[in-house]
Amino acid sequence: MASRLGATINKILDLCRAHSQGLPQKVLDEELQEVEVEIIKQSLNFLLQKQKLQVFMQGESIVYREQDTEAAAKFKGLTSEDMLVYQAIQQAANTGIWTADLKKRTNLQQLQVNKALKNLESRSLVKPVKTVSNKNRKVYMLFELDPSREVTGGAWYTEQDYDAEFVDVVKQQCLHFILKQGLASLEDVAESVRRSGITQVELRLEEFKQILDTLVLDGDIEEVVGGAPSSSHAPVSFETVCYRASRSRIPETSALTSVPCGICPVLRECRPDGLISPQTCIYFKDWLTF
Amino acid sequence: MATQFGRKLACELIFSHFGESVQKVCESLVYRGQLPLPEIARYTGMNITQLRNCLLVLIQHNCAQAFKVEHEGVGSAPQRVSTSYIALTDNILHRLRFPKFLVLVKEDVGDQAEALIEGLLEHGRQTLEQLIQRAAARGGKAVGEVATAVKDCFGKLLSNHYVERCPAPEPSLRPKIAVEPPKKTPPANGAIGEEQRVMSAAAPTDAERFQVPVSLINMGGTDMEMGDTTPIGQKRKREALQMDTKTAAAVDEKEVLWRVNYEEFIRRLRHQVCVAFVRSRVDSVAGTVLEGMLDATRRLETSAKQHSSVPVSSDTIMNSVRNLPLGQGMTVERLRVGLQQLASDSAGYVSRAGERAGLAEGNQYVVNLHKIIELLRQIEVEGIVLQRYGRECCRIFRLLALKGQLEQKQIGERAMVPKDVRELLYQLLKDHYIQVQEIAKTTEHVASKSIHLWRVNMRAVLHQVLDDMYHAASNLSQRLAHELEKEQEVNDTKSIQEHVKRISRITTVLEASLLKLDDAILLFHDF
Predict the structure, then answer these.
(1) How many CB atoms neighbour CB A55 within 10 A?
(2) Do domains A2-67 and A161-245 have the same CATH topology?
(3) How far apart are CA B379 and CA A17, in angstroms?
(4) Which of residues 159-198 of A touch B (CB under 8 A)?
(5) Which of A111, A131, B112, B365 lies 20 to 30 A from A212 at CA?
(6) Is domain A2-67 classified as CATH 1.10.10.10?
(7) Chain B contact probe: residue of A162, A171, A256, A257 with most B CBs at under 10 A
């Protein structure tokens, strides 16, 4: 009995090595036709327990693969629940997975999940990461992975918080450069900011584009296609989008907003003889006190 | 398109200019639309004599118009005609801008013209004789001394369309054709449409409107447009009249009523605003070119809200520009560059007309007045959003106006306000600057599964902003009245001087703000 068990185990491992892409259940069934089902079951369980074998789902069918020895050492002593949790986390890759989703995915009790996470964490196999989209939520991902942009929020986030001050500094620098140059392309702006050394953070062109777009929306600069070449070294082709100081700034004053009613938060409730009325208005009173 | 507070402001203006009873009559007309005399009496509870006087005041000051309505006979009852009255809200609101009209005419024609227009504005409608009498009384001279000068000046005003003959006192309005406008239009719009209908029924044709009175023709004013614009029919009439010119002249002077042509003033103010904008946006040369174009085509405009000017050739523009104080040194080359600049700008101030018509049309250009006005309105709104809600909100507003519809997350990313985007959006939503549209994925409208799209409805925003402006203007004038009233109660002699100083400052601030606010109202409502 024991020898047959040993033989089956060896056979399964051989088959796994022969199918480096993974051994489908169907192939396994065909190869081990003569072996009793009970024996196959026991040997598979033994292998799984010893972390020698991994099980995957590929579409509808089950696939087996042999664990390499290094990995086997890593997972030594972990329970099957731990492994289940580990695999779920592994699948989530660098976006991470939330514990509630983890529970749903693995069909385990909260306590079991927590215990498995604790185990995995203590072995430095997984790590918790805070996400920007949900501040109070922790997501887990494999220890060796770097969190994705969705999780960290990209270059504009420091410690999971949107760094408005940093954005503002970069923005001012970009604006300053464009105003000084008169006309500048996206690449010119990026180059100048990088050279200015105001930040250690690696900013990509997309991020500069984002900054320039907001400057356009703020009415500080405007886009021009082609136009005269700037004074900078690079010749400007006619298709490049360039930026220059905007000719129509958003007005800083307006007739409506220079009277108290224009910025009054309760204008809609204001009527003669009402609780709020032009006769009793305190904003008017302040305005007309010299 | 008078808004809710526009009507309120109109009634308040009438109150401060003509008193309580006239205001009552005006109010019933403004809020209820057209009414016959008995109905007005019922709503106001006034006796007929008093009511009639109030209506006369309103009509005299061009704030109301009477018109006949034909009712079709029902059954055996014969067809009958009744007279109704309608308030002219726009004209009432023009009373706010009389100071602007006076400045404009003073700069364009001169001091005497200003005095004439002032008299007309003060009295609503007057005959030439009355105008001459007023001028004589003011200058302390005899009528005969001033008559020629006044007539001369009046001729200038007339040829510039600053004054016009009054419309028919009581035009008949044919019953509405069976085709009713679609029910979707709100009731308010229906009433306003009526106002326009009555106005156009009462309005004389252009030739009649600015027809020179007989007594002026005899003066031999050659610069008058009589010769070229009067249709043949009228020429013949004129010949017939010449048989008894003297009586005709006298009748003309005594009987024909004149009034200020608000439309022309509004048109000129509109042109001024456009020219000033282009001058600051593009450059001085472009501004001068535009001014020349508008000068050359002003007479041919058919409405104060002209969409775009009539096509004009570059030669005509050149002549017109050379007549301007700033355009005397203009060369053909600079004109060409200026036009090119105006036409190539992405704002599309000017476009070339009749390109498809080939060479026959030559180089003809039109001014896209509506585009300039729309751009100005948009800039003004953006300024208001910036002042009221700050830079981030303004950025979001501009983003949505530019991109159409976006989700909250996209807005946060593109406007670079990922944290506060929700709060900022709700601020704008609360004051109706933006709208939100729910697109439900489930029939239960589960909020977490629905998509919410945010957008700017520019038309609604413009309407809202205009209403706010009327509201603010109304508040300013109410506060001014309140302050003046309060001041009368003070009789403490010690501090009287201080009080006088204070009240004069308050008056200055409030009145100046009101005039500035009215500039914006003009832009949003009349241009």
Answers:
(1) 15
(2) yes
(3) 72
(4) 162, 164, 167
(5) A131
(6) yes
(7) A256
Dist CA A101 CA A116 (whole Å) = 15
* pLDDT tens, position by position, B270-305: 999 999 999 988 888 889 999 999 988 888 888 778
> How high is the ipTM of this complex?
0.76
- pLDDT of A92 above 70: yes
**8 Å CB contact of A250 and B506:** no
Domain boundaries in chain A? 2-67, 78-152, 161-245, 258-290
- The CATH code belonging to domain A78-152 is 1.10.10.10
What distance in Å separates the CA atoms of residue B399 and residue B397, rounded to the nearest whole number?
5
Q: How far apart are CA B116 and CA B119, in angstroms?
A: 5
Under an 8 A CB cutoff, do B416 and A210 touch?
Answer: yes
3-state SS assignment for residue B297:
helix
pLDDT in tens, chain B (527 residues): 468 899 999 999 999 899 989 999 999 999 988 888 888 998 888 888 999 999 999 999 999 988 888 777 677 777 778 888 999 999 999 999 999 999 999 998 888 889 999 999 999 898 888 888 888 888 888 878 888 888 889 988 988 889 988 888 777 776 554 444 444 444 444 445 677 777 777 777 777 788 877 767 655 444 444 444 445 555 555 555 555 666 666 777 778 889 999 999 999 999 999 999 999 888 888 899 999 999 888 888 887 788 888 888 888 888 888 888 887 888 888 888 888 888 888 788 888 876 554 544 467 888 999 999 999 999 999 999 999 999 899 999 999 998 889 998 889 888 888 888 899 999 999 988 999 998 888 888 887 788 899 999 999 999 999 999 999 999 999 999 888 888 777 666 667 777 788 888 899 999 999 999 999 999 999 88
A267 touches B: beta carbon within 8 Å: yes
Q: Which helix (H) or strand (E) holds A40?
A: helix A37-49
The CATH architecture one would assign to domain A161-245 is Orthogonal Bundle (1.10)
User: What does each C-alpha distance from A122 to A78, A115, A116, A127, B167 come to in angstroms?
Assistant: 12, 11, 10, 9, 94
Strands (E), A115-186: 126-130, 138-142, 157-158, 161-162, 183-185
**Contact check, Cβ <8 Å, A270/B465:** no
Inform me whether the C-beta atom of residue B476 falls under 8 Å from chain A C-beta atoms: yes
Rounded Cα distance between B293 and B273, Å, is 14
Q: Do A248 and B379 touch (CB under 8 A)?
A: yes
Three-state SS for B174?
Answer: coil
CA distances from A287 to A281, A283, B481 (A): 10, 6, 16
Please report residues of A whose CB lies closer than 8 A to that of B485.
Answer: none
Which residues in chain A have Cβ-Cβ distances shorter than 8 Å to B483?
Answer: 288
Spatial strand order in the sheet of A126-130: A97-98, A138-142, A126-130
d(CA B431, nearest CA chain A) in Å: 9
CB-nearest to A217 from B395, B468, B482 is B395
Q: Identify from B8, B386, B408 which residue to disrupt to test chain A contact, counting A C-beta atoms within 10 A and taking the largest count.
A: B386
* B425-to-A264, B385, B439 alpha-carbon distances in Å: 18, 12, 17
In single-letter form, the type of residue at position B240 comes to A
